[in-house]
């Protein structure tokens, strides 16, 4: 171990000065002299070794102490690159990244990493923005103060630019959470050409574990992609979807620290922080320009997300005109022109807001709230009076009745009865 490394560890508080003197096999007096010389001429790399003169760019030892203490006391769980950015942004640290890494490594606060291994070739990015979009979920203990909470971060990343198009926390990687992500991207950017995901149960049906997916038996997400005309591409290994996996690692490394620093412990606050603060900074730092200037997103203005993203299952109506859906009993009201709906095969659709409708082809047999309560469509305002009853004009109705009613001519009663006393018409 070099003298400077021992001194830096003593400055960082990892060693006391007597232990440092014992490691270097010298006296405490000599150690004090070396420390004073280091404070005068700066840290390793700041001395011109060719002429043995102090560099003009040397950093004051007091500033080195401040940075070391800052990392040890508050940011020891940050990685080097992230700490360097935070220190420059919030704490007016002027160190370069290389100098900061050297100082903290020699202070024993950061371990030196091994090489990354042999050279590998990465897949070429798609040329256009929107040509391929990655969707993935990352379950992780995102709140350091609550390690029992394991939320799932659902994120969508553009392949051509690495721009994060969507990122929100959900309780799990569910179909409903995926629908919310897809609906947001379609509304904000448009319809992508390809969607690239893993083979999770919400994405594909896999008859044999580890085998190819069944593209004929579509999941709810697969049906939604078919309605949109999006090609849904499965991934067969984590290495194949390396771009989204790297984004997940970046989120796990940076976002956990930032949420902890901000004191956030609820999902609502975390989602707000993601949308308002983190994503803007993340995309500024990590996104790149696409190779082709043309965008591949198809504009989707005017499309109703309810008609695109929903869960659907078939049910047969029972004799009492009810159907069940996930433990909820839905009562179908009497339909015009039909004595009963018993025996009909209907489709139960549940939308992203948890509302439910019963469909038979294009006919809607009923609308319901999340708990199965019927939703009655309001009547037009002009059809109702102030008391909520249909507005009628009694006078106009009577007049109309008089105009439309025709009375048969009435003969005298005597003629009807054939009475002999009835007057006869003169010849």
Description:
The model is unreliable at 44-54, 378-386, 393-400 and 419-427 (pLDDT under 50). This protein has helices spanning 3-11, 17-23, 28-41, 61-74, 80-90, 97-106, 175-188, 220-228, 242-261, 267-286, 394-404, 413-417, and strands at residues 47-48, 53-54, 132-140, 151-158, 164-170, 194-197, 231-234, 310-316, 322-325, 328-331, 345-351, 356-360, 363-368. α1 packs across α6. A hairpin with a 4-residue loop joins β1 and β2 (53-54). The chain is of the alpha+beta class.
Shape: elongated
Strand order in the sheet with the most strands: 5-4-3-6-7
Q: Low-confidence parts, pLDDT < 50 over ≥5 residues?
A: 44-54, 378-386, 393-400, 419-427
Tally of strands: 13
β-strand amount? 15-25%
The helix/strand class is alpha+beta
Major sheet attributes: 5 strands, mixed
Cα-based radius of gyration, to the nearest Å = 38 Å
Structure in a nutshell:
The chain is elongated, with a radius of gyration of 38 Å. The chain contains 12 helices and 13 strands.
